[in-house]
## 1
Amino acid sequence: MNKRLQVLIVDDEELARRLSLEYLRSHPDIEVIGECETGLEAVDAISKLNPDMVLLDIQMPQLSGLEVLEITGRRSGVIFTTAYDQYALKAFDLHAVDYLLKPFSQQRFDDALTKARKLLAQETSSSTQAIETLLTQQSEKLQRLLIRDRGQVHVVPLASIDYVEAQDDYILIHAAGKSHMKTQSLSELEAQLDASKFVRVHRSFLLQLNALQAIEKTSKDSQVAVLKNGAQVPVSRAGYERIKALLN
Amino acid sequence: MHPILSDRRRFLVYITAWMLTGVLIARLLVAADLANWSFAMVFSLPLALFGGFLTSSAYFVCRSLPFNRRSFSLAALIFASASMISGISWLGLCYGWNKVLVLALDEVEVLHMSSHLSVLFFITGFAVYLLALLAFDVYIAFDNIREADRREAASRLLARDAELQVLRSQIDPHFLFNSLNSISALTAIDAVAARTMTIALADFFRQTLAIAEKEKISLKDELRLCENFLAVEKIRFGKKLGIEFEVTIEAETALIPPMILQPLLENAIKHGIRNLPKGGIIKVTIFQRDCWLHIAVENPVSSAPGNSTGNGLGLNNLRQRFFALYGEQARVSWQRTDEKFVLEMTLPFEHNIHE
């Protein structure tokens, strides 16, 4: 091997990180390039350092390990560590993603590393696909949106969203008086959200029913939705049918 | 089981009542100048005894027609015909017995069975049976209600027990496995600390098991449990975790349901301290005022919406548990501001007189 593998350790507990460091000592071909205590730090470190491998704790405050992957788009070279998380574990088994159950032995740790090395060597690793599917599944029970904007991660609770507007190749999320930009298509977002709460009122507009104040007629066959915060959102004819169906 | 025939005391009362009825019939016969006293008694007492047995069969008629599967017209029909049969058999018996007595006693003054008297005997048999049917019906209805009440109370009790079991066993597996992981890390770094943590963890679980079986424990015991729990958590979270206890001496003797404070501290760490990069201090205040015990837990929280703010499920469980134990007498309330989370509960102050 001509180059040492670079690894990032992400865990909110110091002792847990020290254990991983200790286990890594017997692998001279691996270099630890950083340790992160929170998911937010991990997002930064992954984008800046682009490590070959990430030892990623799932249960972390603020941002979970899975959310770190969602934001950074990181898919390969991930070894999950977790104490107990019945839902994630089931998903891992389903998609053959490797994970370490705390407390783990040196032996088990070494096995995971060997496996990860092998996968890294492959051009398109099967784990990339596996994590992709896993994340899509996890986001089905989405509670909040994670938006990364100039190095900062904004957490937008779904309940605070008024409406979402589609622009050229990104979307503008209007929530609690602020707008956030996200590179995602409106249809993709719509698919992730609860269809009984969010309705596509127009080709380029999605609004949350709770934010709706009234629907007003502007001319013979064009309508506009007036939101509780005063904003106005155009409503297409198909959109009007959809919203009517939901309100009844 | 037959309510009268299967109960000795009731049976005696029942028979006595019928015997008195027999005497009454005899008295009426004498009063109407239809027979002399001795004949009237010999005639009416055995008939009354038989009538008693005949009437007691009404219970089985009622039983065979359960309330929930009975149509009114069918029940009325069956009741009427059963009463009719009773009236006819009673009348037939009066005739028969009278004949027997006439032959056996060879007496001059026999009872003359006029059509008038026959109608009276028939109506008596009919009416008494019908009354008995209605009386048994009412008895069965009450019995059903009592039974239903008993069953409901029993099932409520069972449900409550099951609920408590579940609530008590709600020890966070994250806590266990993360602690074991910390110990695993410590063995190479600081063997003494590893041992300390192992012992604190063992003590914590041992105490949990010991108190989980009790319905109430003293606050002092609960605080000891919390200390062991915090000893483990302090090793995991280091300087991030600060804690301040303010407990009055008289409050320590209070009896409380087990594991009410420890889960709250666990929550305060999980949803509060852990989300703060610099950590924070959990404040626990417990005091007694009049006949109430007040417990307050306050912890700083991160103002940014986190992924582990929880859904209030644990707190609602606490509320339900209090309701099961104290009814309306205990109160739990909580409120979250931008910087802190405050939980307050009030429960009746009970204490162990032996302490």
## 2
Amino acid sequence: MTDATIAPAGPDQRAAFRPATFADALRSEWTKLRSVRSTFWALTVTVVLGVGLGAAISAAAAHGYAKSSASGKLSWDPTALSLDGIGIATLAIAVLGVLFISSEYSSGMIRSSLIAVPKRGRVLAAKSLVFAAVTFVVGEVTSFTAFFVGQALIGGHAPDAALGDPGVARAVVGAGLALTALAVLSVAAGTLLRHPAVGIAAMVAILFVLPGIAQALPDSWRNPVIEFWPTQAGGQLASVYHSPHTLQPWPGFGVMCLFVAIVYAIAWALLDRRDA
Amino acid sequence: MIEAHGLVKRYGSTMAVDDLSFSIRPGLVTGFLGPNGAGKTTTMRMILGLDAPTQGSVTVAGRSYRDLPAPMREVGALLDAKAVHGGRRAFDHLLCLALSNGIPRRRVDEVLRTVGLEDVARRRAKGFSLGMSQRLGIASALLGDPAVLIFDEPVNGLDPDGIHWVRTLMRTLAAEGRTVLVSSHLMSEMALTADHLLVIGKGRLIADTSVDDFVRSSSQQSVHVRSPQAAELAAGCREAGATVDAGTDPDVIEITGLDSAEVGKLAAAHGIVLFELIPVRASLEEAFMELTRDSVEYQAAGATR
């Protein structure tokens, strides 16, 4: 401990400072994200689950291909199979996204953050953008790796896909894009709900529980619900074969993005209005 | 300079802050004093834009906090030492805050050295004691080298050495011409650190005064007397307009409203033998408790008066 001085910057040198910018907020949020260990682990789980599960699903499906029915062969989608693991790996991104902001509420860090950046919309925008960018990179790495590993396992046992085939490149890139939209949704949900456990529960409900319940509904209810359910609709971007009662890839992704935008707008308004 | 005009904060039916107006000047340490629950923290949160006032307004350097272009360069604040993500290293915690206001990385090392945490800069904050957390919070307040500093109970959890250090720091900051607002529920602490006092109770302003004036006006004096004729002396004093409190010992009385010389003369005039005649000065702490207790009683008994 030195004596009580805050040298070398005395009051005389204080004069010059520039206004804080959005770029400053981005640098701050990037530092927040990379300086906690949970980020590394969640992203590792995303890659490992996305690639590993995709490989297991691809291998199992390829071995069953010969014995499958004619309609099964007709809807054979080796691309979607290899990317199937990402659907589960999504959970790691959702948890990390919720925690990225809700852990600030549970620890009290949010007060330090909002004192540093009282323009609250800027905090949310910077957080979302940083997390979306990181998820996009990790998501694309995962989907391309999962695709190539999956096709290698399918090839020889069943028809496999190549990136040049119609719709395949779009599906592989699309798996990462859908994951990115989900990343923004989870940050917004964390902002809205503030408690880590509540936020994670909400994301699990949106991703798995509610679509699962919808499967039990009579067809006339189930089909439109599943068709327009945001995460299901967004997932169409990662399929090459178009199954009935689902949206086309890009309109489906549009529904997902619209849902994310609505949740994000509510989160923004509440963050701005509520006492922190 | 911090200025509040008719600040009100209501939570449901509870008035946390009730029509508070004050102005806090640069170059002084202003003590913000009140019992727990008086509304000190709520007021500070409103100054810092964390809570929106129900009515009224507060400005820092002439602007509402949310409109400051580089807040940390103008205002440094320590509200809650535990407002830190426990999984983050001390250095990274400060770096996150510094970057958000365009403050260079080397400044983080400087403030860590200033608060004496350079050796634990790479440790994660969850292992910090309350005292270390307070130092980290003070470091974050100093990052932007601001002209206005706000500290909520900064000596909580510090050892005597740390408390002395914080006092010296506050005095130094004020001597450099900065505005320093420090809250505490301990009058004794403020008497050693502050030049000026804002005293609040139940959300209302009770006193806005210099520490010297406060000490002079509110240190109530009484006279402690031991005498075999205590009852006789008590009667005499009451006649002279004083208040007399009798203790459990029938020979001992406490007289307020007369000084020791007057009591001595009165005793001589009545031929009363005195064994002890001691002037008693109430401590600052007692004076402060007296002041805030009055404010509480005033509110509670308001209807019957």
## 3
Amino acid sequence: MYLTKEEERIYDGECGWTNQVCMKILVRLGELFGAEKLIPISSAHVSGVSYKTLGDAPIEFLKALADADGKVKVRTTLNPQSLDPEHLSKRLTVNIREKQLDILRQFDRMGVAPSLTCTPYYLRKPVRGSHHAWAESSAVVYANSVLETWTNREGGPSALAAAIIGKAPDYGMHKAENREPNIIVNAEARLRNETDFGALGALLGKTLQDKIPVITGLGTASETNLKQLGAALASTGMTNMFLHKPAQNVRKLEKTTVEDRDIKETIEELSTSSATKPDLVFVGCPHCSKGEIQQIAGLIDGKKVKAGTEFWVCTSCHVKQKTAREVEKIEKSGGHVLSGVCTVVSWTEMLGIKTIMTNSAKTAHYAPTLNKAATILAPLEKCLETAFEG
Amino acid sequence: MRSNTLKGRVIVEGHCKGEALVSKQPLSFLGGVDPADGKIIEKNHDLCGQCVKDKILCFPHGHGSTVGSYVLYSLGKKNLAPKAILNETADPVVVVGAIIANIPMLDKVEIKQIRTGDTVDVDACTGTAQISRRKES
């Protein structure tokens, strides 16, 4: 790999241990994937924030980076944590709260503010064609496919290394030739709502491996539906991008078709419970946009959450602040708007939650293993009918 | 005593000698190795119950969450890390883990040639692993 003189000095340790170890990560990964150089990035998005998934091991490493004057060089956002200060925090132990806080403190020391969201693109929309180093697979697929910004699927440590150096190795999705579709998916199924879009993603992830599909038949799908498609696609497979508009020169590509019954079967597979009264009804994976919060507040319209059921809406602190009126409505109904937290990486088992109903195919995919919960996958309207009286 | 030298690609430089612990299966460090004692806890893994401490750890490749890289760092801090890692195919989780924990590492190594209990002399500067076996079994 070609390194500039300055990059070489960093690699040799002349700019301190943190910069050296981060440069080594980028160079070795670059060599592994055939990069010839590093390229500047406009932002980084770092995963690996929840104390529940991280455990104690990473805190030491984050602390070592911060102790050796690690500072990020580009705008850096953070994935959600395992609790929110308003609702879940008081139901958990002091040890969990302190350890989670310690993780955020180390990021803060490195110049990373607690944005705590899996949808950083709602905080600031990245410029089309710009290069980034994002972890969080759902955001990576959304960036490449909907925002048309360019990023590989980084891991937590490599995204942090890229943030500290301000560069990423030039391979994979950073190269135009790797962003061409190599399979046509004819979506003949009727995609009625966000759950059907998510199911399409979950199904394609399992079958496409890392191929880039051009999907026909999506019509003018909303960005919310494409977000659900991409999040599920990333959770069951290695695909980093899909095309949702007609593409040129694809006539010779391999073709596959998705029909109504494929979607129906996928939703059935992702629903492991037949319970009519789930412990938790959850919306907001990936985190809700302003529009989604407004939609939920509108639909619940004065109704009350049923006794014995919890209703959670997850979003970023940023979106929560911008939708204060709607948030108040949801809270008055007995629901909770949790900010900065992700249900899948939160302590649901400790809260006694054994069944989760959600409109997110990604959550339905992960909850049986990560939350040890049975799942019911259904669209928003159905989720609200189940959570609310009347 | 028979000896055999395998070649590989250097991922993390270093030089060390130790006893091989060999798996035919991919290994996930997050959830697969206990950071408290270095024991492999991945269910149904052929090395389940074995400790990675001071071993020349040989497995085809890593899998699972990128948080696994931090587990290798934590093992290193507690002196529970393997002495070296030999892989068939390096993957980002193990590569990053070996870099931050400073564990010598080679990939593109034909690990089928190595058996648990062999003494392996890893030269992760030139990219060779010399295997010594006390007797044929």
## 4
Amino acid sequence: MLDVQGVSAGYGAVQVLSDVSLHVDEGEVVAVLGANGAGKSTLMNTLVGIVPARTGTISFLGKSIRGWKTEAIARSGLTLVPEGRRVFSALTVEENLRMGAYGHRDRTAAANDLVELLERFPILAQRRRQPAGTLSGGEQQQLAIARALMSRPRLVLLDEPSLGLAPVVVEVVFELIRQLNEDGLTFVIVEQSVTQALDVSDRVYVLAGGRVVAEGTSEEMTAAAERLEASYLGGNE
Amino acid sequence: MTTATVLQQILNALSLGAIYAVLALGLAIVFSTLGLLNFAYGELVTVNGYVMWLAVSAGLGFWAAAGLGVVAAVVFSLLIELTAFRPLRGASGPAVIFSSFAVSVIIQNLIRNFVSPRPQGIAVPGWMDGVLTVGGLRFPVLSVVTIAVAAVALVALSALLTRSRHGLALRAAAEDFAVTRLMGAPANRIIGMAFALSGMLAGIAGFLWIARRGTVNPTMGFTPLIQAFIAVGLGGFSKLSGAIYGGFLVAFIEVALQVALPAALRPFTMAFALMVVVVILFFRPQGLARAAEGRLA
């Protein structure tokens, strides 16, 4: 579905990503892990064309999307829920959702999607006339995801969905991702909270210094992490 | 001072404020989208004025000429975007300030060379210069027309911004341009809409301003630019509604000073008005509109 080969990118003279390759198949949840500054957000921004890729190829649904404008990539079914949620705080909850469907040609379908999403997110239905800035962090994260869903994406990139949220709320957000994935939506999740990400994902890429330093299935990674943890805690391996 | 004069001065301030509010909104709408000031904004008023003057000279009716002037301001605003802003997208702020300033200088000199450096008169229909007498109070027709036209423009703009999906996109872009593009809204379309609306508002305000002065001259855009800039600064750059409050406030300060200052100091009204603005901004550096209130993004 998404195929990235040898991509490098950066800002001005600073190169952040070097020779990054990864692929995502339909129906998967793929996690991208790494420390602060490993290039995870830059990778997400490069995939949606906010940061231009300097080398390499990016293809989505069989089309080369490298060099496309952000709005064109979004309309083709690849969207990003950015780090820090970035809901439109002065717009109401409903206006945020309607904005999510901007690229939609079919207005009736968009109106139906709105009704469906408000059923799925009762908290947003309750607050639909409130400015999004008045929502709590967890509610804003749900709104940001719901807003992304309004564009009827095929692949959703989530940049740090757990950032700044209470553990209980993080649980809710990951449960939501699980459900949406069961309904057939494909995800790429960037996370610093490793356990949650390993739990929800099928496969993992680990970024360090702007390069992919490890990849594998989440099961392998979990097992490796447990072995590592056990050895640190003095367990007999 | 009698109650009647006070009321008449309030009406005067309201009509001047209506012009400033519309002007300031036109400047603010581009600023809120791009984060850049259009220094050729005053020339939208100038172009509007000269097209009106040409149309009236060619024998067109006053209102038809006014309509043509507004259309010209919209077209010219889009041209400014294409020539002074789009090629420099992503460049530094000062670069765009200079390019829009260059457009302003070029327009002024073109008019000086190809029309005339001297003012040209536009005859305003006689009835607009008249006075309505209601219950012993005299209301200048022009003030009433000005307030009505500005009110219609503001209501229409507000409906557009809150009801249509394009208006929604403009408000979203004012808050977060990158995320608005992530929603599938094309950057060029949003910026184009902002400039078209900016031109329309400058055209409408320009028409009302010209109806007040009755003349056009090459540097006539300077005062509207400065007044709009002060109004936006006073109202606060964070919200479009701030531009409206700011516009009315500037006009009330100006009219109050004109009434209060002794005749000898009246030529310096603007200087005193700016002093008042400086004092207000000293206490409220963010401007008057607070970021969290109101609905106009």
